[in-house]
Amino acid sequence: MLVSYKWLKELVDVDATTDQLAEKMSTTGIEVEGVNIPAEGLSNLVVGHILSCEEVPDTHLHVCMVYTGDDEPRQIICGAPNVKAGIKVIVALPGARIADNYKIKKGKIRGLESLGMICSLQELGLPDAIIPKEYADGIQFLPEDAVPGESIFPVLDLDDEIIELSITPNRADALSMRGVAHEVAAIYDKKVHFPVKSLNESDKVAADTIQVAIESDKVLTYKARIVENVTVQSSPQWLQNRLMNAGIRPINNIVDVTNYVLLLFGQPMHAFDLDKFEGNTIVARDARMGETLVTLDGEERELTTEDIVITVADKPVALGGVMGGQSTEIDASSKNVVLEVAVFDGKTIRKTSSRLNLRSESSARFEKGINYDTVSEALDFAAAMLQELGNGTVLAGQVSAGDLPLEPIQVSTSLDYVNVRLGTQLSFAEVEEIFAKLDFGLSGNADYFTVSVPRRRWDIQIQADLVEEIARIYGYDKLPTTLPEAGATAGELTSGQVLRRKVRTLAEASGLSEIISYALTTPEKAVEFTMEPSQITELMWPMTVDRSALRQNILSGMLDTVAYNVNRKNSNLAIYEIGKVFHQKGDSKLDLPQEVETFAFAISGLVAEKDFQTQGVPVDFFYAKGIVEALANKLNLSFDFVAEKGLKSMHPGRTAAILLDKEIIGFVGQVHPQTAKDYGIPETYVAEINLSAVEVALKPSQTFQEITKFPAVSRDMALLLPVDITHQEVVEAIRSAGIKRLTAIKLFDVYTGVNIQADKKSMAYSLTFQHPEASLTDEEVAKFMEKITNALIQKLDAEVR
After folding, report:
1. pTM of the predicted model over 0.70
2. How many Å apart are CA 282 and CA 339, to the nearest integer?
3. Is 459 annotated as a binding residue?
C-alpha cells in the first residue's frame, strides 16, 4: 500500500515527519517498508509555456520558443511527437538534474542552440506503468493554470512523500487512505476529518432504468447508481497526481474516479457503459462451466462454476471482484454510466484471480475484506465526483440487492484478563483512553466491559484481539520485560525424540551419513516405493512440477541424491534420512494428510576398498539387512523378514518386507535394475522403516540380568527342505517347539546341487541352549532336539540329515 503523506495530512492533523511516523507505525503493528520522495535527485525543473513551435525540415525535431518566467523566452529543441504551441510543459533548465542524475547543459542539435530540455514524465524517473496513456509516447502537458517559471514539483505532487506500508492479512483495513488515517489518528490521539461530497439527484429514479438481482450465495450485496450525460475527459491534475503516487495509471475521469474511491475507501468499484447493455437487469450469479468472457485486457477467459459473473441479458459483462468485461467498457464516446459496488466472498475471488493469474488492486481487497459501513457511502461519493468532474446527472436512489450487517461487533473482556496477558497494571481509565483513541465504543467497568467495534475493523472478534489493540496503542516498548515465573520443571525428551536419537546414533555407527531431501516431489515419485499408496496430496500452485506433491516415501529423493553423487564420480555411498512421509486417507481434498515418521537409507558401491592384499567387498542384500537387524537389536525389538515381490520398484528376488509383531513396517532390498537405470545409478540397496509404528512397539528399557555362570551347549542339525522354504519359516518352526532354554538359532550353510534333488536344498543350523541356573545334561539337550525335529517334520516336511 502506497500512502501519499500530503493526502494523509488532509485526512488527519499530523505534524510528525515521515521518519517519525514510519517508526511509530512500525512499532504499533503496521510495518513501513520505506519512504520515497519522487522529487529526490531532481532539480531546476520549472513550468514552461510554449509560445511557438516550428518543425526542423527533414527531421522529427521542433524549434520551440518557451517562456519560463525569465525576461526573454528561451529556444529549446524538442523531438516529442506531441509538442505544440500554446501548452504548458515541464522544462529542465541548464544545470538541472533529471532521472539517473543526468545533468542538462546548453547545447546544439543540428546546429540549433537548445537552452534546456522539454521533459516527459519518464525522463523524471516515473515508471512507464503509471504514465497517462495520452502522454506515454510524448511530453507531459501541464494544467493551464500552471504559472511559467514556478517549480513543477508542487504542480505534479512530486514534492510528496510516499510511505510504503507492508499490510498483513489481519490489517486489511489499512488498505485504504481512510483506514490509514484512522490508524494514525489513534497513534497520535487525533481526530479524522474525511471529505464529504454533496449529491444532487435528478427527479428521474434509477430503479426505473435498471434492476439488480443476486443469484449466488457468494455475493453478499450488490449496489448500483446511474449517472447520465457524463463528459468523458482527462481527470484534473490533482487526481492524476494522487493516482500516480499510488502506483495507478490515470485513464479518464470516469475510471480515475473509481480508482480514487478504491484508494480512499478501500472499496473496489466498476463503471459500465449503460448504452452497451442489452437488457435492464443486472444479475450477479455463479458462472456456468465453459462460459467465456473477454476481459478489459482483451483476453478471452474460460470460466468455471467457482467464478462470480455480473450479467446483463444473461450474458457476462464482468468477472465479479476481478476485472470488467470489454463489451461494456467506458470509452471516449460513453455518456451514461452505471457505477457498481459489491461485497463478494473473499475465498472465491482469490481462487478466481489465482486460477486466471489476474491479481488486481480490487481482488486483493475483496480477498482480505471490505468495510461494510462505507459500501453505500463510497458509491454516493463516486457518483458525486462524476457529477463534479464530468458534469453528469445522477439519477435518484441506489438500486441494490442483498443486505450487510452494519451493527458494531460486541467483544467483552475484563481488566484482569488484559493485565494478566500483558503483564501490566493498567487502570480501567487507561483502557478507556486507549479505546477512545481508536474511536471504539466502551461500556461496563473493570470487572467486565464490552467494546463496540466498528465494522471498519473486521479483524477484531475475540478477547485476545482487544488485548492486542491495547498493547500496540499503549506501546510495546512500555510492556514489562520480566520473564514469567514458573516452577522448576525437569525437561526431558519425548519418546519420539529418544527414538530418533537412537536411530541416528546407530545409523552413523554403521557408516551412514545423514542427508535432508525435499518433502515435495513429482506425483509419480511420490508413490514410487510405497507399499500401500494413498491419495496424493498436491499443491494448488507449485513453484515447479518437480516439487508439486507431498512424498509418500523418502527413497525416491534419496536416489536423486545417489544419482547426483554418482554423476560426480562419488560411487561409494551410504546415506540415511529421518523424516516425514504423508498419507492422505480421505477422499476429500480438504482432508489433511497423516504425517508418518520414517527412517530410510541407501547404500551403493563398495563396503571395503580393494587394496594389494584384499579384494573389494561390494554392498549386498545381507549388508543392508544387517543394518536393519542391528537397529532391531539396539531397540530391543524382534524384526521378521518375509520375501516381498509386490514392490514394482524393488528387485523381486532380493527384497524382504520387515515385520514387527506380524505387521509390515517397511522393507529392505535392492532397487530394481530398471528403476536404477531410470535414475542413472549403479546397483543400490535401500530400506525404509515406519518409525511411528516402531515407537508404539517400543518396550521399557531392559533391567540388568546377571550373566549366567553355567556353560551353553550347541548342537548342529542339517535339514533337507523343499527349495521354496525360507529361513524365516524354519526359524518359526523351531520356535514353535516351545523350548525355553533355546537362546540362539544360527544358519551357517545352504547347499543345492550334486547328490540333492533339484527341488530340494540343504540348510544347516547351529542351535544354542543354556540354563541360567544349572548345567544342561546331554539327556535334556537330546529331548530338546527331538521336540525341534518333530516340529520341523510336522510343519515343513523336513528331513533331518
Report:
1. no
2. 12
3. yes
